[in-house]
Each structure stands twice: as C-alpha cells, then as structure tokens.
User: What shape does this take?
Amino acid sequence: MNLAQRVAIVLGLLLIAAMALFPPWMGKAYVIGIYPSGYHLVFARVWAYGPVLPEHPRRDWVTYRVDTCRLLAQWVFAAGLTAAAVVALGSGKRPATELTERGNQT
Assistant: This one.
C-alpha cells in the first residue's frame, strides 16, 4: 500500500466520522407527518431547529431523531468512494527489485 492509498483511506475515515458527528435528522409532526430536518451536530438539541406548527405550537407534538436510512446510505457511498480511490491510486505492478529478489532466493 503506497502513501496515496493511505491518505485516501484516512480522508475516507475522516469523512465518515464527520458524517457521524453531523447526521441527517428527521422530524415527525402530528399535523404534517415525517419530514427531513437538516444536518445538525449529534449532541445538539434538534428541536430548536424544527418548524413552528401554527395549529399545535407545543413542542411535544413534534419529535426528532437521526435519519438512519439516509446516514447509512451516506456511509455506504463514502466507503465505496474511498475503496474506488484506493484502487485507482494503487499501482498494478510490483517493483522490479522485489520480483528479482524472490527469483534469486530459490
């Protein structure tokens, strides 16, 4: 594994970690149903970013949670992109010195 491949793996892992820190959220309101609620810090109080419902202004009518389906799709895409970068950055040939050393050992 060369340096460029290692850098691609580290960048892919950092991207996945950033996605875990700022996951997609979804809200469920009594009146309007389920809706995307943006990307927010996982430790944040997401209810502060939700819509104000004119019919029911009370916050207990709205619940928020991480949209795990979207988050998993993002992770799969990032892992696939990282794997493609590692394959693309890899050299298909082994160094000639390594091949000649193995041939001389017999």
Observations:
- Residues 1-23+67-106 form one domain.
- Residues 68-89 form the longest helix (22 residues).
- The chain has a mean pLDDT of 80.
